[in-house]
Amino acid sequence: MKMRIVSTREERERLIEFLTTMEQDFLSISRKEAASLKYAEVVIEYVFKTGHVENENRVSKLLEMIKEAGLSDIKGCHHLYYAVRYSPDHEIIMDELVGISKGIQEIIGSETFFDWHITVIPDDNLERDLELFVVAAKLV
């Protein structure tokens, strides 16, 4: 797991550039949302990647990693953007996406109100693994 607080405007601009200018948008956000990220009070980035899951439930493994991280830093954030990357050979199914969404919501808690923005992206390098990229923003 990797976590960082994106504190400077320049870092946020680079993050927005990364998120919106890939061949297929990594996260589908509008210009208005991109501007909100740029001027937000707090922007936090997390990256979780399951490591070589074989027969175990890859969503359970991912949620276990998220629970260990706690995500307490994103409580109180207004916007939550996340992308799930998977291998086209082991496509992610709707039940797995719902499990990830519900798991994150349980970890964060119901006192946090936010807009969800979800993207699903194939990645040939992941085999059975999943990668979850999360950006949380607390607006001014």
Describe this structure in words.
α3 runs parallel beside α4. It contains four helices and five strands. A five-stranded mixed β-sheet has the order 1-2-5-3-4, with helices on one face. It has helices spanning 9-20, 31-38, 58-69, 94-108, and strands at residues 2-5, 42-49, 79-86, 115-122, 131-138.
So how many helices? 4
Radius of gyration: 15 Å
**End-to-end distance, in Å?**
27 Å
Strand content: 25-35%
Shape: globular
- Please list the strands of the largest sheet in the order they lie side by side: 1-2-5-3-4
- The overall average pLDDT, rounded, is 80
Low-confidence stretches: none
Number of strands: 5
Question: What structural class do helix, strand and pairing data support?
Answer: alpha+beta
What is the helix content? 25-40%
Biggest sheet, in brief?
5 strands, mixed
Sketch the topology as an H/E string, one letter per element: EHHEHEHEE
Throw out a few tags for this protein:
single chain, 5 strands, alpha+beta, five-stranded mixed β-sheet, 140 residues
Architecture blueprint of SSEs:
Layout: E1 2-5, H1 9-20, H2 31-38, E2 42-49, H3 58-69, E3 79-86, H4 94-108, E4 115-122, E5 131-138
Parallel strand pairs: 3-4
Antiparallel strand pairs: 1-2, 2-5, 3-5
Short description:
By secondary structure, the chain is an alpha+beta fold. The protein has helices at residues 9-20, 31-38, 58-69, 94-108; strands at 2-5, 42-49, 79-86, 115-122, 131-138. The protein has four helices and five strands, in the order βααβαβαββ.
